[in-house]
Structure formats: C-alpha cells, structure tokens
Amino acid sequence: MESVCPACNGIARISIPCRRCSALMEDRGRLEDYAQPYSPYDIDDELGEASRAGQYDVASPSMLQGASANESGRRALDTCAHLFVCPQCGSDRRLSIPRRFI
C-alpha cells in the first residue's frame, strides 16, 4: 500500500469556504511546489525513503512550529500541505490534507 494525497491525485476535491467572504476557495496545489523547483515526485520519494529508513525529521520547521522533530516528520509523512486561495477576495489559507493508503 502507498500513502498518497487525495487532492494531488484527484481522488477527492477539497472544498473550504473563505473565512473572509464565504466564497469557495480554490486549491492551488502543494506548498512545496511554491518553495522549490517543480518536481511532482521528489518530495513523495524523499518522504517514502525517510519513512522506510525510520528518519522522520524531514518536515519544514516553519510549517510545523512547536512540534518536535519526530512529531513534525510524522505529520509531514501523514499530510500534504496545500495552498487555498479565494477567487473573490484573494485571501489565502494553508491546509494540511491527510494522506490516504491505496
């Protein structure tokens, strides 16, 4: 079995209302895609290798402030952080989407 993000893989569509104007926000993709050169498989490959090796400290500290390295890494392996943007007012929101086993 493999752990995948349902939003990235088209398994589920995530709909959340904007906190400012209540319009439905649009999923603009993974946060990692904004911080690094585009490569859709690199982060999943790295997370999978870290999981198999027992190394869980691969999460970005800025994304998971206040958590220990092990907690941060486990959460990064279990979730996929996405950026949502409101088409009406332009506000944005970050959401950690739980990965699913398929």
UniProtKB/TrEMBL annotation:
The organism of origin for this protein: Heliomicrobium gestii (Heliobacterium gestii)
Protein name, UniProt field: Uncharacterized protein
